[in-house]
Amino acid sequence: MADRLSVDLDALDDFGTRLDTIKQQLDSSHHTIDSYDDAYGSDKVRDAMHHFESHWRDGRKHVEKTAETLANMAHESVKAIRKSDKDLADQLNKGVHNQGAPQ
Questions:
Q1: What letter does residue 36 receive in the DSSP assignment?
Q2: How confident is the model at residue 60 (pLDDT cuts 50, 70, 90)?
Q3: pTM (global) more than 0.90
Q4: Sign of torsion, CA 17 18 23 24?
């Protein structure tokens, strides 16, 4: 067991938020490809882009699920560590106040 545990909770929470954003952007990437249909200039290019997008879907779903799982883990870890820290501080404060009380 480590002598001291040090976690940058803001950075961990920010990491979770970034993963949430990545998941959302991946989820909407097919809309981005569709939005350029008129700009491709060629039906062959458009068809190739849609072909790529449809085949990338399986891999994208795996990455989305992984990002979502890791984001949830990061957010829940931050929440649990902050709760534990608060609970410990409350217990210490309670102990300090009880030591000073007449018995």
A1: T
A2: confident
A3: no
A4: positive
Q: Name 43's Cβ contacts closer than 8 Å, sequence gap at least 6.
A: none
What's the pLDDT tens digit per position in 10-51? 999 999 999 999 999 888 887 888 888 889 888 999 999 888
What's the rounded Cα separation, in Å, for the pair 30 and 42? 18
Which of 10, 6, 5 is closest to 75 using CA atoms?
10
Angle formed by the axes of helices 9-27 and 43-100, to 10°?
A: 150
- Locate the domains of the chain by residue range: 41-75
Q: Are 66 and 23 in contact (CB under 8 A)?
A: no
> In sequence order, which residues have a C-beta less than 8 Å from that of residue 82 and are 6 or more positions away?
9
* Cβ atoms of residues 88 and 47 within 8 Å: no
Among 98, 17, 30, 21, which Cα is nearest to 58's? 30
